[in-house]
Amino acid sequence: MTLWFRVRRGRVCSVVIVLLAPALYAVGETAVVIPSVFGTPPARLPLALIVPLAVAITVAYGFTTGDPLLEEMAGRRLRGWDAAYVLGAALGAAAVCILTASWAESEWALGAGRNALSYLGLVLLGRRVLGAHAAAMLPLGALLGGALLGAAPDGQPPWWAWLLVRAPDAGEAQRWIVSWIIAGTTLLLGVLTLFRRNPRAIADR
Length: 205
Fold this sequence. Notes:
There is one protein chain. By secondary structure, this protein is mainly alpha-helical. The protein is about 65% helix and about 5% strand. It contains ten helices and two strands. A two-stranded antiparallel sheet has the order 1-2.
């Protein structure tokens, strides 16, 4: 198990998760402006929503450093460890973001916690569809696609751009709740792919 944890870059991932707190505090409410492709007002993409992507990239990298053929031939025990690792990383990252929101009073830290779950789920789905080395492109594409296509006059994007939904004011919680449901579902679907044979993993060898 020690070798597996080293191969998956578990220590590096733990450090990255801890560093989320100072990173979220440093970026604060800073955002980059993304032009809209349909003539709607430009979207603001808060850097805090991008920060958790570092955790997903670290996890994705860990899945490229082992021997794909041996891992595909391994029993369910190894896949169970992988599932526990991803879930632990997701919950740890979300917890750090939520705690940061409580003391840093950041408008976007809670959204960063939700995105941590989403990014990890999307990385696992991307590993299945795109291969291990390109897995991180799926969460990045979902984030940028939502920013490009999901700009809205009221500042709240549609439900399908859930990565950009911000914590609501009182009485406007529907899209916020839906965004967390999508995040959790995405993570669950991603974890389930770990228990299915992945021919692409062998092809990427």
